Fold this protein.
Amino acid sequence: MIGRLQPQSITAQQSSIAGLKAVRRWWVLFVVVAAQFMFVVDAFVVNVALPSIRADLNATSGEMQAIMAVYLTAYATLVITGGRLGDIFGRRRIFVLGVLSFTATSLWCGLSGSGTELVLARLAQGAAAALMVPQVLATIHFLFPDAARSRAFAVFGTALGLGGAVGVALGGWLVTFDPAGLGWRSVFLVNLPLGCVIATTALLLMPRFEQREHTRLDLPGAVLLFLALAAIIGPMMAGRDLGWPVWIFVTMVAGAILLMLFLRLEHWIDGRGGQPLIELDLLGDPAFLRGLATVFAFQFANLSFYLVITLYLQDRLGMSPFRAGSTVAVLALAFSVASRLAGRWVPKFGVRVLLIGTAIQLVALIDLACVAAWWPRSGSSVLVLPLSVFGFGQGLVMAPLSGVVLATVRPAHAGSGSGMLNTVHQAAGATGISLVGTVWFADGPVAALALLCLAIRVTIWLLDRSRRVGSVG
């Protein structure tokens, strides 16, 4: 079964960690986290630029929807395969390839001359991210097996959470200030210098993870998983804008059937002594599965929250992109403070910190719902406090959550576990954005915020259950 290192490979990798200076591994952490940050920013930065893109490229409504959806769809459908490739061929090699591909496709996005070309470029950009991003969590999981682990995951969580807020703010600022007269193209071209620096630094600093011998990619499994996830996640992202026609649900059911066939295929391959795409041991780990459910509920609320707040600020309150971005910036500041505190508190108090963080978020969402219901035309000053509170609670949870979920995963399975975690992350975002967006346009902001409250309440229940059964601290 894939995932079992030869004894000499295990010794070599342990020696690699032992020989890696403490300071150097933190630099490696910052390098890989910078790539994660770049990916998340690109998921949000384009939203504010869409009106400019439409005007410049004369893009259709369908192309506008696809520019947002295909990026995350390509990523979500390929990220497990990307994680497995890192397990097989070495994380540094696949990470650098992913960063360079992401940089090149960002250049393609920035130079696109039509809506159709930009859709294709975004599709390629998401596929490149699927090579790059799963190596981030796997590298952290491998390099920090000691007491510094929670602080390392706090840094990762900070980048993950800040990426959403910074993406919204950065998009507004770039569109407003129009650097070098590039217009909307600057939201993509800004990745070029960052990507080149990340790739160069990774080559210099990242340790050479051992390539596994006598292993190969489960290509039939990869193709079947891609088709299954594309049939589930793609229609989910497009359903709200298309009015949820019947074929959307038929396609999603077909995707669920393909997913079950994929799991049967993986068990069949494993039973014949082959090398399945995913580590089947992870599917038998109750703590890991409960962690995935917690991530789904949490990300359902937190990723769709940015859709709600963007629509509220720009559509309901009529704010400019610059003012909307500046308003959301207070959330990013509060998040940054909380994520640093989480790195210190989680080793001492465990999952209680996450429970407190989700409870804080719940209070903030209720406050925002009250503002939307009773002061629907309030200014940004009224929103500063609830946004700050929400960001603080988010920082306490998002920073350590990935580390908690991966705590039971062996380092040899880090790529597969990371890929599964990232897939659930994106599936949750797609589900949340689709359902919350539908509720928003049907019933308004109060109903949408109520749905977010429900998702956070489910997260609290799952975290408390994990604490009670002792799967997390």
Q: What stands out?
A: The chain has a mean pLDDT of 83. The domain at 18-207+277-469 is CATH 1.20.1250.20 (Growth Hormone; Chain: A;). The two ends are 31 Å apart (CA to CA). Residues 45 and 452 are 22 Å apart (CA to CA).
